[in-house]
Amino acid sequence: MTTEPNFDEIPAYIPKKGEDFMSKGQVKHFIHKLNVWRDQLVYEAENTINHIQQDSTPVADINDRATIEEEFAIELRTRDRERKLINKIDKTLHLIDMGDYGYCKTCGIEISLLRLEARPTADQCIDCKTISEKKEI
Question: Which residues are bridge partners to 103 per DSSP?
Answer without folding.
Answer: 110
